[in-house]
Specification:
146 residues; four-stranded antiparallel β-sheet; 5 helices; 31% helix
């Protein structure tokens, strides 16, 4: 039972440190900035959504800090690209050869090996959204369709 309590506290601390909070918590952290946004933008931010024309501050309040940032150079100029990622965990069952020690019927320690099945969890990170800025304004939004 204590393990679950400790893990709960640890996961909450990670949420705060990583900035993985909700739009509502980011609004509470900076209510003056939120109040300075137009009403249409405020409604979208509260739902965790963004739109063309948003500023970096509006996007950060709606979605949080980006996981990655890129610079994209085109004929029209240089764009700043924010990338938001997510993770999906998959589990694969694999057969591996394992060495082990055991006691035989006479009480002596023996070594042996045999094939065993193990479940291997893999985290797959994928890009779920890209936001392109030009001159501090959202120019384009790409979202993964699932």
């Amino acid at each position: 039972m204590k393990t679950f309590t400790f893990l709960g506290v640890l996961s909450c601390a990670l949420v705060v440190v990583c900035g993985c909070a909700t739009p509502q918590s980011r609004i509470k952290q900076n209510p003056e900035l939120f109040a300075s946004f137009p009403p249409e933008a405020q409604a979208l931010i509260q739902q965790g959504q963004i739109d063309i024309g948003f500023t970096p501050e509006m996007v950060t309040m709606a979605l949080g800090a980006p996981n990655r940032t890129y610079t994209r150079q085109t004929r029209q100029g240089i764009l700043e690209v924010w990338s938001y990622t997510a993770k999906q965990t998959t589990t694969d069952r694999q057969r591996v050869n394992a060495n082990f020690r055991y006691r035989d019927a006479g009480g002596s320690m023996r070594s042996g090996s045999d094939w065993v099945w193990v479940d291997v969890a893999r985290d797959i990170e994928y890009e779920r959204m890209r936001v392109e800025f030009t001159e501090g304004i959202v120019l384009a939004i790409e979202s993964l369709q699932r």
